[in-house]
Amino acid sequence: MAHTIHVDIVSPEGEIFSGEATMVFAPGVEGEIGIAPRHAPLLTTLTAGVVRVQSEGQDEQSFYVGGGALEIQPTKISVLADTAARAHDIDEAAAQAAKARAEEAMRGHADKMDIAEAQAELARAMAQLRAIEHLRKKRR
Fold first, then answer.
1. Nearest Cα to 122, choosing from 107, 110, 132, 111?
2. Whether residues 53 and 112 fall in one domain
3. Are residues 106 and 79 in the same domain?
4. Residue, of 79 and 131, whose pLDDT is higher
5. Of 114, 133, 12, whose CA–CA distance to 66 is shortest?
6. Domain extent for 101
7. Which pLDDT score is estimated for 28?
8. Closest CA to 56 of 15, 104, 21
9. What are φ and ψ of residue 118, in 5° steps?
10. Is the same domain home to 81 and 42?
11. Do 81 and 118 share a domain, yes or no?
12. CA angle 133-137-140, nearest 5°?
């Protein structure tokens, strides 16, 4: 039997996932982090993106996170997401609309605060669309 690591993905809305994994990939601020069982302890910030959970004998599961924190211990991973959803639960039309609104806001405003908010919204929308695309590729 392969070694596993326990994974909890939670958001303010509640628990999204809890289970065992053989490998987890998460969108860290410095790039994607690959986490295997017995990983060294680490605490880092997450960016908007896709958390992928691989389990022995099961299909890989994908989750959208809108940023947050990641705590890694040798036997447990805790993803504390600002927002989170299973990839198959994301509304593609809403994500496309949010992307379009953010792009329009970036073109139309000179205020730095408005631009920063639009950039954050664009990053979240793009991460949701990447999660949907990743799910489509898995189905092929």
1. 107
2. no
3. no
4. 79
5. 12
6. 91-139
7. 93
8. 21
9. -65, -40
10. yes
11. no
12. 140
